[in-house]
Amino acid sequence: MSTILSLARKWRPQLFSDLVGQEFVVRALTGTLSSGKLPQALLFSGDRGVGKTTVARILAKAINCEKGPTVNPCQECDSCLEITRGTSPDVLEIDGASHTGVEDIRSLREGIRYLPFRSRSRVYIIDEVHMLSQAAFNALLKTLEEPPPHVVFIFATTEDHKIPDTILSRCQHFRFRSLGVPEITAKLENIVRQELLSFPRAILNLIARASGGSLRDALSLLDQIRFLGDTPRSVEETALFLGMAGGLPEKKLLDSLLEGNLKNALENGDRILAMGIDPRATLRSLASKVRDLLMSSLLECPLTDPRFAWDESEVPETPLPGAFFLEQMLSLLLEGEMGIRKSPQPSITFLLCLCRIVHIQNILPLPEILDRLSKTGLSSSPPEPTRAALRPSVPNPVATQQTDNPSAGNDPRIPSDWHQILERCRDAGPAVLELLEHCPVKKLSSGHFLLKAPNAFMEKRIQEILPAFQEVVKKNLGIPFELVVSTDSSDKSPEPDSSDALARNHPLVREAASLFGGEVIVTRKSGFSETSPGTEEKKE
Fold first, then answer.
1. How far apart are CA 474 and CA 462, in angstroms?
2. Residue 155 pLDDT exceeds 80
3. Contact present, 188 and 204 (Cβ < 8 Å)
């Protein structure tokens, strides 16, 4: 049985011009090569399968090409051919995950003392360098500080935050980005065309979404799918093979969510679960599509635009809702995907997420609520309640005093309620209104009010602001106004005093005071006690 070369290896870029999606990295590296000032330690970081070790190999060829250093290796000299085959004695690839110890770094330090066999420089490519131990990093540090002139280090990692700062500061850091779905789809179309394979764009788009931004993973998936058979492959079959909802099931689910049909959404969601598809992958795929729908709506461009790379068969049949609903839908999909990760019942969490998405269609955006309120004549913002309105209401005593001119009390310009006066005199200032709201008031006659201050301090403060407040009332109401201020003690009813007198003069009390030669002590509710006058009796 013969073996074949995988698509990922067969179509591995060999020149800077073959790279996809790493324009800034290519520009920086070609610029340093052209200037002849290449650093001796470089760090490539990024997700898996985005081209870190591939670029490291291309850079090694550019350095050691017999016609170089050059940005375009000839691909014909012995050095270029050996690096392409991975047999060059001067380009060493080391797996950092399996060479983590300090002894491995010491062996490396012993080797860098020797000059290259037949190349211009010795290039050390250490993949997954973040897996080195702290002792190994310390052993490497001295070499990076003073490297031999014939040595170039290229480090590759997916987790640059795990690399010590002392190493980072001695390297030039190049960050590789993940590829977008349109970029991967376009590259796959080019490869499929040259391989004489038959794949519809919808399947290639599905593969690009499943790759997670990694071109290498996309080529590996394409390699697997092409061996399913010579029969025409459908999107549904491909999606099921990839463990995704994709194709018609996912399209039906998306349509039912967009139209707010809960019954259809649950049926389609349950059908996807019955197919054995990971609910997290389904929500992740839906989130990617809703993101494209939102961008298409805001940018006012069709989904078939190259930046989205949607096939005509993937476009939803349901009219798109507004951006508000799409934003909420995207947020719920991401929350649901995180919830499934922690949930003991992923299928229930998945269906619950679908229910929430349907129900948010009943929530109106704030501008629409305000618009409806303005059309119905209701105030868009209710008046702020005063502190007096928030306190439990205590009925004010009804004034029984009659005036000589009864008709004056019916002046329509004079509000009957004290709080109405305060509302119409808000220009007196918040501090004044705050002070007056806490005091009970009763109306004596037309334009005459009695305000009870709770203590002498409050009475003094009110007396200070009273003239200015009365002027504001006269200006706003257009009537003469007089406010009389008194403390609570000056307006007490005589009933408590008379009851105390009855208690002191009770025969039993007087007899007890005479028997023990004492005096009557009256205890108030506030907790203070006082000696009642005239209760001391003469001894017989």
1. 17
2. yes
3. yes
Give the end of a domain, one of 242, 258, 284.
242
On whether both 13 and 74 belong to a single domain, the answer is: yes
Q: Which two tokens stand for residue 39?
A: 């650093």
DSSP 8-state code for residue 299: H
Q: What percent of the chain has pLDDT over 90?
A: 19
Q: Residues with Cβ < 8 Å from 192, sequence gap 6 or more?
A: 198, 199, 204, 222
489 phi/psi in degrees, rounded to 5: -70, -30
Cβ contact 116:150 at 8 Å: yes
Tokens matching residue 61: 């060829």
Least Cα distance to 140 among 98, 101, 114 occurs for: 101
Q: Dump the DSSP string for 258-293.
A: HHT-HHHHHHHHHHHHHTT--HHHHHHHHHHHHHHH
Phi-psi region of 51 (alpha: psi -120 to 50; beta: other; left: phi over 0): left
> Model-level pTM?
0.59
Q: Can you give the CATH number for the domain in which 343 is found?
A: 1.20.272.10
Alpha carbon distance 111, 91 (integer Å): 12
CA atoms 54, 58, 63, 64: torsion sign: positive
- Quote the tokens at residue 507: 């025969």
Q: Which of 265-274, 315-324, 451-460 has the lowest average pLDDT?
A: 451-460
User: Is 94 inside a domain boundary?
Assistant: yes
Look-up: residue for tokens 């990024």?
A: 46
Domain housing 264: 247-362
Which of 304, 328, 362 is a domain's end point? 362
* 459 and 505 housed in the same domain: no
Mean residue pLDDT of the chain comes to: 78
pLDDT for residue 175:
93
Tell me how far apart the alpha carbons of residues 306 and 153 are, in angstroms, rounded to a whole number.
Answer: 39
| Residue whose token pair is 């394979």 | 197
Q: Residue 534: its pLDDT value, please? A: 45
Helical axes 52-64 vs 23-35, angle rounded to 10°: 20
Q: Which helix (H) or strand (E) holds 295?
A: helix 279-299
Residue carrying the six token digits 């306190």: 391
Do 474 and 503 sit in the same domain of this protein?
A: no
Which candidate, 442, 445, 519, 531, places its Cα nearest to that of 480?
A: 445
DSSP label at 427?
G
407, pLDDT greater than 50:
no
Joined together, the tokens standing for residue 253 give: 């689910």
Q: Using alpha carbons only, what angle is made at residue 487 by residues 486 and 488, rounded to the nearest 5 degrees?
A: 125
Name the burial class of residue 456, with classes exposed (0-12), middle (13-18) and buried (19+) by CB atoms within 10 angstroms of its CB.
Answer: exposed
The pair of structure tokens assigned to 495 is 């009933």
DSSP symbol at 345: -
